[in-house]
Amino acid sequence: MSVITKAVIPAAGLGTRFLPATKAMPKEMLPVVDKPAIQYVVEEAVEAGLDDVLVIIGRNKNALANHFDRVTELEHTLEQKGDAAKLERVMHSSSLADIHFVRQGDPKGLGHAVLRARKHIGDEPFAVLLGDDLIDARDDLLTPMLDECVGHGLTVIALMEVDSSQIHLYGCAAVEPTGTPDVVKVTQLVEKPAAADAPSNLAIIGRYVLQPEIFDILEETPPGKGGEIQLTDALQVLAQEGKVLGVVFRGRRYDTGDRLDYIKSTVQLALDRDDLGAELRPWIKQLAAGIDA
Signal peptide span per the entry (predicted)? Predict the structure, then answer.
């Protein structure tokens, strides 16, 4: 199998959890410290060798395309001011990758969004990265997933152990060992099960490396939970045929799809920054000391 170079980022959601902030701004453009969330995801894709990125957008998502485009007036102003550091950061986002955009149209769920990528992807494997999940740049997840896909010719999904009380928020996988550490064979997938019905505590997180056969399955997949076409339901078809592997991720992941987790993610990433952490840590300690009072 040839090297995988294409990534799909679904970004057509309405972001209702963050209203009114997302009334006019896509949730993917909400800043995490000083970069929009989607830029972290694109950078992760590029770092793994995926330099052809298709973003699935909805209405009022023009800010996404604008962010990855050049702003010559701003570049000129920064250049005139001699602010090389900011100029470099601004130009970085416009030269990251070959980025394309297509509209989802009807908001019919994640499976439908992935299906909209069919013409761009063609007949080759590709990665799907969800913008709500940020993977720490120091913890590589995509590379081992891509390696497993290329090595075995199978679909690969990312899994992470979660507390059983949280499993109802995720798709959940039943698995068997393969003999390779943190690589498992997926035998069953269930979308957002109750804790009592969950086959394990392994949750599907927002990274997938899919074989193109997924498109034919999605074409036939009826609406599932929430009345939407669920990617998990299509993957279940492949799992029943023994065509899905899971890579268990044990690194740092930041969930920006929930307001509280978004705040936690921003604070944690800021603490880890060389330019912010040193001043932020004593302030947080001081804040924490006075919370009870």
Answer: none
**Can you tell me whether residue 103 is helix, strand or coil?**
strand
Residue 108: burial class (beta carbons within 10 Å; 0-12, 13-18, 19+): middle
Domain ranges of the chain: 6-257, 258-293
Distances (CA, A) of 41 to 7, 55, 136, 227, 244: 10, 11, 10, 27, 23
In sign, the C-alpha dihedral spanning 149, 115, 213, 1 is negative
Q: How far apart are CA 124 and CA 285, in angstroms?
A: 50
For the entire predicted model, the pTM comes to 0.91
125 Cβ contact list (under 8 Å, min separation 6) = 1, 4, 149, 150, 209, 210, 211, 212
Residue that the structure tokens 């109802």 belong to = 168
| Short-list 147, 173, 176, CA closest to 160 | 173
Tokens representing 197 are 């019905």
In words, the CATH class of domain 6-257 is alpha beta
The answer to whether residues 13 and 27 touch, using CB atoms and an 8 Å cutoff, is yes
Answer for the pair 124, 241: CB distance below 8 angstroms, yes or no: no
Query: What are 9-68's pLDDT values in tens digits?
Result: 998 887 888 989 888 888 889 999 999 999 999 999 999 999 999 999 887 778 888 899
Reported as a single tens digit per residue, the pLDDT across 74-110 is 888 998 889 898 888 888 888 888 999 998 887 788 9
Q: How far apart are CA 126 and CA 210, in angstroms?
A: 5
For tokens 């990758």, name the residue.
97
